[in-house]
Amino acid sequence: MAPHCTATPTTGEAASAAQHNGHLLHRSLANPPHMVESASGCTLHLSNGRAVVDACGGAAVAIIGHGSQEVQNALAKQAQKVGYVHTQSYSTPVAEELADLILDGTPYGLEKALFLGSGSEAVEAAMKLARQYHFERNDTDRMHFVSRRQSYHGNTMASMSVSSNLARKVPYKGFEYPHVSHVTPPYAYRYKTDGETDGQFTDRLLRELEDEFLRVGPGKVIAFIAEPIIGATAGCIVPPAGYLAGVRKVCDKYGILLILDEVMCGTGRTGTFFAFEQEHVVPDIVTAAKGLGGGYAAIAGLYVHGRVVDALRQGSQALNHGHTYQAHPVSCAAALAVQKILRRDGLVNRCREMGGVLEKLLRSELAECKSVGDVRGRGLFWAVEFVKDGATKECFDPSIGFGAKVTQASFERGVAVYPGAGTVDGVKGDHVLLAPPYTVTEEELATICRTLKESVLSQEAQYL
C-alpha cells in the first residue's frame, strides 16, 4: 500500500539483481528490491549477508516481530485441518474464534467482524456497507463521501478515490469515484495559523467539515472517513484534543456515518488496541489490517457497530458484498495466534511504554539536527518531518528527495526506516516514519535513533 520501507539499492546491487531478473513484477522496474533470506525479531537477514534492523515493521505490520514459531505452528495446524472453504455456504471455527476474540464484550458497540485480504479491501467494504446502511433505511439519495487531504485509505479505485495521496492517483485521473470531496487535515504543524490555539484550530476544522456537508447537501453524504492518526502520507499526524469527538457530533447532526480507518494506526500500534479509544469517540465502522495478522498472513478486518448491523437485520438481512478469500481459515489462524500473543504478553501496554522511550530518544538524539522540523506520534508510531529552514518551515526542493536520501543513508548503516514525500500537500515535504515491532528492545531503539541521527546529519552536510 505504500513505498518500501527499505532504501533503493545502490547501483552495484541493482546491476547484480538485474542479472538475475525473473518474472516477478516488482514495484519498480528500475530498482529491484533487496532479497531477504530470513527474518527474526526486529532483524532482516539479506541474501548478501547483511543484517538490517526493521525499524518500520515492514509498513507498521510486524507487531510481534518476525519469525514466531508459535504463529508458524498455528498456520501449519490449520492448513492440515482445512485450508479453504467458500463463505457463501461455510464458516470455520478459527474464523469464528478470531471474531469473538477481537470483539469480546462488544467493545464500543462494535458487534460484527468481517475478515478480508487487505486494507484496501476493508476500506472498499466499509464504503459499500455504509452505502447499504442508508439504502436499507430507504435513504437512497446519499452517494457522497467526505475525506481529508493528505490522507490514505487504499490502492483500489474507490479507496484511492477517498484518499489524497496525489502521486498514486496521477495515472488514474477520470477513473475515480466522482462523489468525493476533501477537507483540511488536523495537521497543526502545517495548517494551524500563527496565533491560533489548538482549540481555535479544532473549531475551524469542524466548521469547515460542517460547511462541506452543507455545500454537498447533508442528505447526500454517506460518510466521513478518517484515520484517527494519519499514517504514511503525512507522517503520524495526531489530531488536536476534541477534534474527532467534534467530528462525531457533526456527523450525528446530519445522519452521516463515521468510518475510522485504523489499517495502519490500529491493533495496538498507538498504545491502545483501537486508536480511536484515546480520542473519546465511537465510530460506526472501523477498518484494520496490518497489525491484525502481523505480517504472517494477508488479512484485514472490518468491525461494525450494532446500529449498522441492525439496519441490515431490519432490511435485507444480508451484506451485499463478498470475496472468495474472505475469512480465509489459514489467514485467520495466523491472525488468531498473533492476537493471542498480543494479549498474553501484554504487548499493547508494552507498545505504549516503549513508545515513551522512543519519543525521548528521538527528541534527544535529533535535537542538534537543523533539518528536523517536527517529531510527532503516539505509541510506537512516530514520524520525523524535515525542513530546509526551521524558522520558516520551508521545505526542501522535492527534486532533492531529502527524506528518501535519509532513508538510504540509514539503510546503509543497517536500519530500515519508512520514507515519505509530498508530506505537506502531495508535492512538497519530506518525512520518515518509525513503527518497530512492539517487542523491540530499548537497546534496539537506541540503535535506531542513533543511526537516524547519523543519517540525517550526513544529508544535512550536503544540503544545508
Structure overview:
This protein starts with 10 loop residues before the first helix and ends with a helix. The relative contact order is 0.16. By secondary structure, it is of the alpha/beta class. Helices cover 38% and strands 16% of the residues. Strands 4-10-9-8-7-5-6 form a seven-stranded mixed sheet, sandwiched between helices.
Task: State the main characteristics.
alpha/beta, 16 helices, 38% helix, disordered N terminus
Q: Widest sheet: strand order?
A: 4-10-9-8-7-5-6
**Strand content range:** 15-25%
Classify the helix fraction into a percent range.
25-40%
Main pleated-sheet profile: 7 strands, mixed
Find the count of extended strands (DSSP E, 2+ residues): 15
Overall outline = globular
- Helical segment tally? 16
Q: Runs with pLDDT <50, length 5+? A: 1-19
Evaluate the radius of gyration.
22 Å
Report the span from N to C terminus: 32 Å
Mean pLDDT: 95
**Class inferred from helices and paired strands:** alpha/beta
